[in-house]
């Protein structure tokens, strides 16, 4: 199976189709006779590589996990080509075309893909447990407040708020799911079990940004005692669907250069 290892494409043409390397566990076989799908994502600082955008990565991961053959086009927002402007006027990436139709709302795209690319041909990605969909949903807001703060006297409290949100996620990850009730502390790989779901596609890109940016601009590291959270991240970094859809750390740091504020003296 082919993988776009370079993760590069021009702003007006698409990269090679993304599927998966062979792994020990069974994965969906890319359907070369399936629908024509093109995903448009934010370009990085060079106008070609993948830029920082958790929403773009969310859709990238979903399509990859579905096993559908699709193309990825990076869009340079500084010089958006006329043909893309005509295709989706007023729309910023991410958006996608599915058999020529344009879809631009990320949540609706997720719902559409889950319904359209359904079993038995494509895997179901929805989480079985409702709580998995909301786990960690307050982390990104706490992180944003933390890195945007300029007042030293508020820094400790904002860091504590972020830690509290991360601790809540850690607790969810080590707590057994209903089907693990007799197994004590959970050792599952991801939010809803041992396979990536839509919940992970939403949370992991944001969690990665938190990890990279907070370290760069606040010298903050996720506390080592959050063993469930670190296990979760460690498992994610072993997945092609995640690591091959991430923007480079330098792109993430660059995106926050003017967002993360220096603390005053």
UniProtKB/TrEMBL annotation:
UniProt topology in membrane: Single-pass membrane protein
Subcellular location(s) per record: Cell membrane; Membrane; Cytoplasm
Catalysis: reaction(s): chloride(in) = chloride(out)
The keyword Oxidoreductase belongs to this UniProt entry's keyword annotation: yes
Bias-annotated ranges (Basic and acidic residues): 19-35
Record keywords: Cell membrane, Chloride, Chloride channel, Cytoplasm, Ion channel, Ion transport, Membrane, Oxidoreductase, Transmembrane, Transmembrane helix, Transport, Voltage-gated channel
Domain GST C-terminal: 99-256
Gene Ontology CC: one annotated term: plasma membrane
Keyword Cytoplasm: yes
Region: Disordered, residue numbers: 1-35
Low complexity composition-biased segments: 9-18
InterPro entries recorded: CLIC (IPR002946), CLIC_N (IPR053823), Glutathione-S-Trfase_C-like (IPR010987), Glutathione-S-Trfase_C_sf (IPR036282), Glutathione_S-Trfase (IPR040079), Thioredoxin-like_sf (IPR036249)
Main location: membrane
Pfam families: CLIC-like_N (PF22441), GST_C_2 (PF13410)
Domain notes: Members of this family may change from a globular, soluble state to a state where the N-terminal domain is inserted into the membrane and functions as chloride channel. A conformation change of the N-terminal domain is thought to expose hydrophobic surfaces that trigger membrane insertion.
Family: Belongs to the chloride channel CLIC family.
Name assigned to this protein: Chloride intracellular channel protein
Organism listed in the record: Haplochromis burtoni (Burton's mouthbrooder)
């Amino acid at each position: 199976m082919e993988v776009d290892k370079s993760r590069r494409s021009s702003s007006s043409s698409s990269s090679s189709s993304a599927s998966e390397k062979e792994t020990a566990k069974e994965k969906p076989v890319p359907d070369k006779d399936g629908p024509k799908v093109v995903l448009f994502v934010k370009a990085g600082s060079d106008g070609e590589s993948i830029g920082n955008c958790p929403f773009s990565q969310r859709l990238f991961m979903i399509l990859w996990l579905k096993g559908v053959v699709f193309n990825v086009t990076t869009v340079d927002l500084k010089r958006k080509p006329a043909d893309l402007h005509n295709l989706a006027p007023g729309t910023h990436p991410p958006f996608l075309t599915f058999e020529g139709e344009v879809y631009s709302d990320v949540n609706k795209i997720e719902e559409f893909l889950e319904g359209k690319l359904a079993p038995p041909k494509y895997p179901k990605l929805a989480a079985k447990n409702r709580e998995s969909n909301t786990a960690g949903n307050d982390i990104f807001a706490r992180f944003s407040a933390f890195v945007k703060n300029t007042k030293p006297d508020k820094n400790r409290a904002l860091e504590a708020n972020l830690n509290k949100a991360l601790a809540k996620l850690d607790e969810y990850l080590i707590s057994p799911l209903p089907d693990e009730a007799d197994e004590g502390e959970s050792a599952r790989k991801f939010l809803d079990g041992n396979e990536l779901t839509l919940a992970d596609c939403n949370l992991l890109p944001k969690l990665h940004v938190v990890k990279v940016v907070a370290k760069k601009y606040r010298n903050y590291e996720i506390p080592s005692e959050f063993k469930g959270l670190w296990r979760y991240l460690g498992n994610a970094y072993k997945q092609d669907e995640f690591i091959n859809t991430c923007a480079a750390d330098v792109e993430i740091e660059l995106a926050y250069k003017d967002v993360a504020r220096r603390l005053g003296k």
